[in-house]
């Protein structure tokens, strides 16, 4: 079967040629313009006689050139490799080499230039300051590369490469928190099905305007937001980076109706001053990437007067796996139910399915139309993840009697203290209920007697007047003795990845007293305001 994901842009351009597709700082592009410009990019790429399926890496923030490059690459029958703009030289070199990329489209940073040194056969295409933020006239190409504007000078070729539906459209690299990042191969059909069914389930309206503040190089931004909007002819308001003020300005300016974000974004927006703001265009929100604390969810919804539906997905599942139904039937703390055509089950360590109920926690396993073809050039790791026809997510959870799915924690985040399982999310939910706690994260650290001990890192509200000991004592009164954190560290900020997810590996390194891995998106943990507590022996025994 012949199918190319870029047909979504072509069909929307036929239906809504003059409708705004992209709104961004300094301008806007209609569907018709974006279709023509991306066809110019495709023609330029074809002119380089790259073989079908050749990998083209794109290292850009949320700017129009990212979108034009994406659809141009697909139209030309090539494979897109989105890359985090914050990666340092060695990290970028790894992604380029591992993916066998033959071209890098980037913003001309010194890091990118250094990464390309000594890598043979990779063409550099620069999005210069003159073109970044919107296609414009030809400009100086900057450090050793072709200017992106040159890709727009070719005559638009209306042809879309008639590849197979199972051809790899995108290679998305996992975060690499448990090892070197792996490239998950996603096909044209998998990405199409995910955004089509996600939009149907979520309830897309013709005049919706989606906010794209989540990075487009991440599966949530690329699949759920950009692909979803393109599929249904929605307008996308692009923001290069998140700040509460920038988001509020965009909602007012562009009349945004759909807000998609991760929990830390909703947390900051719940704390923001919105006095005098006209935010009445918002109609619904979605949250993913990590579990959103119920207290944060309730505060945001009360302030903005909209419902935020929590969902679940991974890079390996082309984003959405489950989503909560509407406000009337959703369940708090649940990630909802699987999309049509996706099977989900809970399995024990022997891969046997478990019955419903919170007493039967196991690993979440998936199969269906959206599951990755495998990890690029990694047959062993592919076989390990795709066992017995099911993709093993590494997430722990359970399904209730009504079919709602609950994620308890990441399998790697599970803390086993003195033989007892402690799920950090449960402790974090309790910490967020404390009026003095602004943000919280819980990790385990090695302990010679108990195996692991529980450590909490918290950010306190400036006006709270509370100490770490106050918070620890409060939690101790409200949770089983083996679950409360024996160490509570007050920090200035929690380390976060590019999508705003809290980076727990950095916290685990801090708890163990080891240096954090070099990650530009993960700031060093500030020194705690109190030393590690010396807990009496009798309090350290699990009950």
Describe this structure as you would to a colleague.
With 543 residues, the protein is of the alpha/beta class. It folds into two domains: 7-399, Rossmann fold, CATH 3.40.50; 414-540, ANL, C-terminal domain (GMP Synthetase, Chain A, domain 3). The protein is 28% helix and 25% strand. The protein contains 14 helices and 27 strands. Strands 2-1-11-10-12-13-14-15-16 form a nine-stranded mixed β-sheet, with helices on both faces. A five-stranded parallel β-sheet has the order 4-3-5-6-7, with helices on both faces. Strands 17, 18, 20, 21 and 22 form a five-stranded antiparallel β-sheet that branches. Helix 1 (7-15) runs antiparallel to helix 2 and helix 2 (31-46) packs across helix 3. The chain is globular, with a radius of gyration of 23 Å. Mean pLDDT is 88; it is low at 130-143 and 515-543.
């Amino acid at each position: 079967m012949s199918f190319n994901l870029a047909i979504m842009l072509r069909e929307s351009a036929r239906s809504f040629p003059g409708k705004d597709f992209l709104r961004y700082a300094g301008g806007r592009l209609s569907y018709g313009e974006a279709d023509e410009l991306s066809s110019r990019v495709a023609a330029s790429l074809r002119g380089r006689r790259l073989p079908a399926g050749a990998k083209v890496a794109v290292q850009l923030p949320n700017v129009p050139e990212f979108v034009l490059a994406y659809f141009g690459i697909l139209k030309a029958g090539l494979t897109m490799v989105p890359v985090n703009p914050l990666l340092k030289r060695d990290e970028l070199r790894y992604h380029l080499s591992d993916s066998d990329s033959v071209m890098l489209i980037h913003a001309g940073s010194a890091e990118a230039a250094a990464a390309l040194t000594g890598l043979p056969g990779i063409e550099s295409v620069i999005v210069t300051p003159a073109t970044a933020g919107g296609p414009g006239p030809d400009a100086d190409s900057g450090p050793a590369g072709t200017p992106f504007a040159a890709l727009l000078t070719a005559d638009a070729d209306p042809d879309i490469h008639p590849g197979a539906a199972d051809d790899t459209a995108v290679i998305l690299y996992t975060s690499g928190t448990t090892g070197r990042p792996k490239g998950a191969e996603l096909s044209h059909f998998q990405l199409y099905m995910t955004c089509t069914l996600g939009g149907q389930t979520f309830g897309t309206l013709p005049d919706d305007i989606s906010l794209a503040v989540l990075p487009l190089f991440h599966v949530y931004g690329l699949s759920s937001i950009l692909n979803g909007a393109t599929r249904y002819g929605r307008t996308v308001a692009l923001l290069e980076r998140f700040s509460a003020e920038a988001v509020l300005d965009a909602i007012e300016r562009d009349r945004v109706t759909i807000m998609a974000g991760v929990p830390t974004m909703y947390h900051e927006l719940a704390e923001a001053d919105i006095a005098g703001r006209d935010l009445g265009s918002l109609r619904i929100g979605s949250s993913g990437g990590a579990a959103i604390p119920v207290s944060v969810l309730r505060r945001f919804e009360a302030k903005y007067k909209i419902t935020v539906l929590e969902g679940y997905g991974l890079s390996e599942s082309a984003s959405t796996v489950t989503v909560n139904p509407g406000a009337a039937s959703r369940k708090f703390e649940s990630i909802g139910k699987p999309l049509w055509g996706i099977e989900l089950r809970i399995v024990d360590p022997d891969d046997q399915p478990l019955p419903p109920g919170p007493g039967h926690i196991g690993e979440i396993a998936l199969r269906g139309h959206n599951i990755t073809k495998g990890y690029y050039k990694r047959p062993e790791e592919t076989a390990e993840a795709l066992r017995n026809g099911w993709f093993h997510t590494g997430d722990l959870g359970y399904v209730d009697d009504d079919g709602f799915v609950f994620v308890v924690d990441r399998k790697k985040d599970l803390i086993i203290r003195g033989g007892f399982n402690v799920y950090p999310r449960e402790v974090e939910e309790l910490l967020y209920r404390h009026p003095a706690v602004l943000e919280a994260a819980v990790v385990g650290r090695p302990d010679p007697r108990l195996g692991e001990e529980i450590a909490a890192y918290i950010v306190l509200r400036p006006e709270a007047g509370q100490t770490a000991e106050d918070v620890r004592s409060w939690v101790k009164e409200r949770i089983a003795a083996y679950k409360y954190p024996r160490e509570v560290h007050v920090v200035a900020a929690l380390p976060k990845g590019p999508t705003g997810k809290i980076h727990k590996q950095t916290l685990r390194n801090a708890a163990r007293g080891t240096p954090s891995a070099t990650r530009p998106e993960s700031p060093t943990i500030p020194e705690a305001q109190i030393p590690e507590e010396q807990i009496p022996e009798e309090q350290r025994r699990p009950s």
